[in-house]
Amino acid sequence: MTAWLKGLSWTLGVACVGIGLLHLAAGTHCLPDMGVATATADSQARFLGAIFAGYGAAWIWAVRQNPIPAWAIRWLAGIFLLGALGRFVSLALDGVPHWFILVLTAFEVVLPPVFFWLAAADERRASRDGQYAGAV
């Protein structure tokens, strides 16, 4: 389980850093179906890109700990799931987005429960092996 947790956490962390930096650099120009965006929308996209890069860095930090702190994985996965909730609110209020956003939404719904499960399994293993120091 630890290998899966590490692999998925690294992948998500690196992807979030990359996507965040892309959004920071390109603003709304890298977002599908944006059309002509206002300066406010572009500013918001770049700001959130920086935040998303930091979120990815938090995943990378967590996976580099030994043992991997289950509490951090749970928090990060919960934030990811909260992002999916935001997408569902947008879907209800504004309609169906670009197809690629729907693909992202599927990942944002499916991955958090996987992370919750892997974190719990790794926490049990670390506790059994005498590595787990408890929640912070």
From TrEMBL:
Any Pfam family: DUF4345
Transmembrane segments: 43-63, 75-93, 99-120
Highest taxon above the source species: Bacteria
Keywords: Membrane, Transmembrane, Transmembrane helix
InterPro entries according to UniProt: DUF4345 (IPR025597)
Record carries keyword Transmembrane: yes
UniProt key word Transmembrane: yes
Name of the protein: DUF4345 domain-containing protein
